[in-house]
Design a protein that fits this description.
This protein is α/β, with parallel strands linked by helices and 255 residues long. It is built from eight helices and nine strands. It has a seven-stranded parallel β-sheet with strand order 3-2-1-4-7-8-9, sandwiched between helices. Strands 5-6 form a two-stranded antiparallel sheet. Strand 2, helix 2 and strand 3 form a beta-alpha-beta unit. 44% of the residues are buried.
Length: 255
């Protein structure tokens, strides 16, 4: 799928990976709907990108708000060709900690936002994309989900986060197989440690230390590098049903 003229919804597009994706898509001639809960930040990114962008306040776990984000794309730009799911939360909590067992509500929150939220937006976007006219190879669009290397290398204290991201990994192939008849591809990116607002609570010293743990390049990933991979996934029609680790060969230890 060539990006110029195409319309994509980007969840979590107000900052970090999502904002980088929105900027990349618009720079390549696409149009985006930024869907996230932080209205001030989302509106600021949309204003920065100009006429090729719209913002709609969206809780990805809400069916009604998810539908509103899809409707915004159709009303503003007349089409929907893709979805990039970047909305998510990072949770650290031990199954059995000093104050007792892992909170059930916090575990459910991670799964609800990271996994169910991604699935909610995927199913709603797929319905709209399936109505588009097919292009070369019969392709109508593409859905990119965001997992994490924690899905494979989950550390102590990451039970909820790793489980939620592993669910996205497990969703990838069956979704790609099912949506193939509609000409919709599904690909997942599993990032390593990226320098995004999710790490804002860490000191620069800690972040630099984390970067040095990456074999090569020995630094934190950059949001623009994630966005560049999204661009390639859009343009490479043979990429489908795959989970791509973007981690500089990092394999996380137990802690």
């Amino acid at each position: 799928m060539q990006i110029p003229g195409k319309v994509l919804v980007v969840t979590g597009g107000d900052s970090g990976l999502g904002a980088a994706v929105a900027r990349q898509l618009v720079a390549d001639g696409g149009k985006v709907v930024i869907a996230n809960v932080n209205a001030a930040a989302g509106e600021a990114v949309a204003a920065e990108l100009g006429a090729a962008a719209r913002f709609v306040a969206t809780d990805v776990t809400s069916e009604e708000q998810g539908q509103a984000a899809i409707a915004c794309a159709l009303e503003a730009f007349g089409h929907l060709h893709g979805l990039v799911n970047c909305a998510g939360v990072l949770l650290g909590e031990k199954i059995l900690g000093r104050e007792g067992p892992h909170g059930l509500a916090s575990f459910a929150k991670a799964v609800n936002i990271n996994l169910i939220g991604s699935f909610n937006m995927m199913r709603l976007a797929a319905e709209a994309i399936a109505k588009e006219e097919p292009g070369p190879d019969g392709e109508r669009g593409v859905i990119v989900n965001t997992a994490s290397i924690a899905a494979f290398d989950g550390q102590i204290g990451q039970a909820a986060y790793a489980a939620s991201k592993a669910g996205i990994v497990g969703l990838t192939l069956p979704a790609a197989r099912e949506l193939a008849r509609h000409g919709i591809r599904v690909v997942t990116i599993a990032p390593g440690i990226f320098d995004t607002p999710m790490l804002a609570f860490m000191t620069r010293e800690v972040r630099d230390s984390l970067g040095k743990s990456v074999p090569f390049p020995s630094r934190l990933g950059r949001a623009a590098e994630y966005a560049a991979l999204v661009r390639h996934i859009c343009e490479n029609t043979m990429l489908n049903g795959e989970v791509i680790r973007l981690d500089g060969a990092l394999r996380m230890g137990t802690r």
